[in-house]
Design brief:
This protein is an alpha/beta fold. It folds into two domains: 3-66, no CATH class; 72-271 and 314-352 and 385-403, Rossmann fold (3-Layer(aba) Sandwich). It has helices at 3-8, 23-67, 73-83, 101-112, 129-141, 154-163, 185-192, 195-204, 240-259, 281-291, 313-326, 356-367, 392-398, 406-421, and strands at 92-96, 116-121, 145-148, 168-171, 210-216, 263-268, 271-272, 294-299, 307-308, 311-312, 343-348, 354-355, 372-377. Helix 5 links the parallel strand 2 and strand 3 (145-148). Helix 4 runs parallel beside helix 5. It is globular, with a radius of gyration of 31 Å. The structure holds the ligand O=C(O)[C@H]1O[C@H](OP(=O)(O)OP(=O)(O)OC[C@H]2O[C@@H](n3ccc(=O)[nH]c3=O)[C@H](O)[C@@H]2O)[C@H](O)[C@@H](O)[C@H]1O. Ligand UGB is lined by residues 176-178, 216-218, 268-270, 280-281, 296-298, 306, 308, 356, 383. The ligand O=C(O)[C@H]1O[C@H](OP(=O)(O)OP(=O)(O)OC[C@H]2O[C@@H](n3ccc(=O)[nH]c3=O)[C@H](O)[C@@H]2O)[C@H](O)[C@@H](O)[C@H]1O is lined by residues 176-178, 216-218, 268-270, 280-281, 296-298, 306, 308, 356, 383. InterPro entries: Epimerase_deHydtase, NAD(P)-bd_dom_sf.
Length: 430
């Protein structure tokens, strides 16, 4: 022990050097010595606690950083490879919600023709995430890399734009489902209004990408004028889902106006098909029919059947790709507008509404099984009685022409369903 240390921290009291001649002074020194010792110990303990706490917070933030599923040289290489354009005049597209139903199909179509594609998906558990994982493997097999992340993650989005100069963004990530909005309203605000984070990153990008995104037929809400045209009223939403999609249309308009972002909003009409969403009626009806369970069919006012303009996925993909192909360039860069940019809204429907009981009859035919129908009055849950798209505008501007009727489309869906889940999955065998 050094002299100084020995003085400060005497191993025995007797070692403490005092003037033995003065008792008072000795007491005083002893008292002073023990107080200063305690003081130093306290200081030492405080310092120890402080460094422990800051080390913990370093570990926490560090683990957040290190446990992120993105970043690093290898990751950047995968992103670049996947976004590589393979045809002349091709585009490099960031597809959000890529492991979703429409996202998967659009990503495959783009990759197939030689466009570069990077997918983004948060793999949330709104419906069975294993279906999303299966879609992801399908995409990986075709050379499409999927980044696991949320559209609200500005750091991740900025990083993606640092690595790739995306020409287009196909924004399909959303909280879908009309009736679920009553159970989990905040999820709709988080995901659907989360569009703002994406737009902020896009407006600051240099070059700015053109954006095509999924709105919804539900924005027509209580509109009764049929068929629904893009210029019809959309200020009477019947569900929070519809309200957040309508908000998306207004929000994208402001980014178009202020920053010169090229925007195309697509109002999808009840999209169905292989690799579809298990929360949708045609999908859950199929599962219940095969399992021998009853299905609930809602009926409108005065016993009128509900009807939807069911639109097959391949037709929707054509509409999405057509929108990307015809999208004008964004005019701004680095957050500054340089001139007016394109702002478009299109209906993507089938123009041929079918009632829900008819949908069930078609499923019965393809499944060769009878449904146990439980018909109830439509609860006040955000549903609308019917939808019907006027598609003259996308026909003219995009060459959009749906070619699959519900009979044909459901046949393809049932074929996929049986191949994916198997005939006897959960089927009640008496
Ligand atoms: O076009 C859209 O913008 C939306 O389309 C889809 O919504 P919807 O048209 O409501 O589809 P879907 O749930 O399949 O119900 C179909 C019909 O079955 C009736 N329905 C439903 C469930 C049930 O148990 N019984 C029943 O009769 C029900 O009353 C309805 O009449 C998407 O989910 C949505 O995300 C959004 O994209």
């Amino acid at each position: 022990m050094s002299l100084l240390e020995e003085e400060l921290f005497p191993s025995t009291p007797g070692k403490f050097k005092i003037d033995r001649g003065h008792t008072m002074s000795r007491h005083f020194h002893r008292c002073f010595a023990s107080t200063s010792t305690m003081f130093l110990w306290a200081l030492f303990l405080i310092a120890l606690t402080a460094s422990y706490l800051s080390f913990q917070s370093f570990i926490d933030s560090g683990s957040k950083y290190f446990s992120a599923s993105w970043g690093g040289i290898q990751w950047e290489k995968q992103v670049r490879n996947s976004a590589q354009i393979q045809r002349s005049g091709g585009m490099s597209v960031l597809v959000t919600g890529a492991a979703g139903f429409v996202g998967t199909h659009v990503s495959l179509a783009l990759k197939k023709r030689g466009d570069g594609v990077i997918g983004l998906d948060n793999f949330n558990n709104y419906y069975d995430p294993s279906l999303k994982r299966a879609r992801k493997s399908l995409l990986n097999k075709r050379g499409i890399y999927i980044v696991e992340g949320d559209v609200n993650d500005a750091r991740l989005l900025t990083k993606l734009f640092d690595v790739v100069a995306f020409t287009h963004v196909m924004h399909l990530a959303a909280q879908a489902g009309v009736r679920y909005a009553m159970k989990n309203p905040h999820s709709y605000v988080h995901s659907n209004i989360g569009l703002v984070t994406l737009l902020e990153v896009c407006k600051s990008a240099n070059p700015q990408p053109a954006i095509v995104w999924a709105s919804s037929s539900s924005v027509y809400g209580l509109n009764e004028k049929v068929p629904f045209s893009e210029s019809d009223r959309t200020d009477q939403p019947a569900s929070l889902y519809a309200a957040t999609k309508k908000a998306g249309e207004e929000i994208t308009h402001t980014y178009n106006h202020i920053y010169g972002l090229s925007i195309t909003g697509l109002r999808f009409f009840t999209v169905y098909g292989p690799w579809g969403r298990p929360d949708m009626a045609y999908f859950s009806f199929t599962r219940n029919i095969l399992q021998g369970k009853p299905i609930t069919i809602y009926r409108g006012k005065n016993g009128v059947d509900l009807a939807r303009d069911f639109t097959f996925i391949d037709d929707i993909v054509k509409g999405c790709v057509g929108s990307l192909d015809t999208a004008g360039k964004s005019t701004g860069s680095g957050g500054k507008k340089r001139g007016p940019a394109q702002y478009r809204i299109f209906n993507l429907g089938n123009t041929s509404p079918v009632t829900v009981p008819t949908l069930v009859s078609i499923l019965e035919k393809h499944l060769k099984m009878k449904a146990k129908r439980n018909i109830v009055d439509m609860p006040g849950n955000g549903d609308v009685p019917f939808t019907h798209a006027n598609i003259s505008l996308p026909r003219r501007e995009l060459g959009y022409k749906p070619t699959t009727d519900l009979q044909t489309g459901l046949k393809k869906f049932v074929k996929w369903y049986l191949a994916y889940y198997g005939y006897n999955r959960g089927k009640v065998v008496n």
